[in-house]
Amino acid sequence: MTIIMKTTKISSKNIIIGLIAMVILFSTKLYAEPNEVVLTLEVDPEQCVSIVQGDDCYVDVKITWLSKQASDYCLFTSQQSESLQCWNNQTQGQLSKEFISNENITFYLKQLPSKDIVAEEVLEMAWVYKKNGRSHASWRMF
Amino acid sequence: MRLFPKQFIVSLLVGLTTFNSPELLAETTTTIQAPNDSKAVQLSDEERSGGFLKLGFGYKAVTMPYEDKEKGKTLFLNARYQWENRLFVEAAFYRVLNSGLNIGYNFYNTERWNFDLVTNIAHGANETGYIDQGKVFYKKSDITRMLALRTTGSFDKTTVQFVVAPYSLNSDYDNALYASLWLDRSFQIKNWELYGAFGLEYRSQDMLEYYYGISEENATANFTAYNPSSGIDTTGEIGASYPISNKWLFETYYRYTRLADSISDSPIMKFASNLESRSKNMTEFGILVSYVF
User: Fold this and answer.
1) Which residue, of A38, B66, B111, B195, has the fewest CB within 10 Å?
2) Chain B residues with CB inside 8 Å of A83's CB?
């Protein structure tokens, strides 16, 4: 009787281990999908602040990406159709560059040759004073 | 002796332009221009209603002939609220435009110009007392509050403001007239905003006579009889702001006001400006951190 009970206990443990293994395998399968090969795309800082809404905002941005799968990648922005930089057969990359904009900038990492977007991140524009009918030099209304 | 309180520099402003110099950009710089939104738009009363509140804390140093040099830590306030019925209240205690606490009515607007009927402090109160070689010299003048017509033009980074105040609430004298012209222009260098402001303030002869004139019967050895003409003060201000975040600003400014000759030539002012810790003209320097609500 005692032996039977022990056998039952071991079986439950195996089930739990099996479930965990399935979850891990399932997760791995997800990351292996073509559009999710890039694990991270980071933009630092995430926000650029100007004095007045609509003014150009100047920001030095550091863009870092990391992938589990070595491949050819190119970094694009919403500012221009040409790529900012491309990497061949790499699993990670980094770019530091100054940007000037008065609207949000979206960064896209595309995998070649398909040019599928595998990751994207947004650099937000912020401001202290809203633009309105009165000059902010006299009064800045909210 | 107390003339020209902080509210002294009556309204107005200036403004100015951004400085988008391509040569400032590094080789790796990328730029994008959003659609030109500098075109003014006509706003409804509801859209014009609302408020602004900015509180600052920092250091200020002021020299002038009216009071001993003042320097040290201080609070800075800039606030305005306008209701949908176009009434508004303003309170500002730094930067030349819209100085002091005023109420008004925004009676007409165009795309570029705001027309307001507003209260205005054309001159602060003044009291001078001195025993001059055994004879007492004493002169006291109250504050001159006026009703003014103010128009402010906003052109992108440039602001122009005209003020004409023909009606005085001070019944001690007649024929008070105050007028001013201000120009303010800001420039952008990276994320810094720099600005320069220039202003002229006219005060009528009767107004200056009330504050700086000395009659024959009140004259003493050093405070001789004096009848000033009308005069124009000239003010220049430069400043800079940097956005620490979308709520916090670093700000600094320096202002210089050259008083009209008809004011500086008054025996009262000659006496005052020679006192220790005072000066012939007026300067103000401030450095602060502000929170914009």
Assistant:
1) B111
2) none
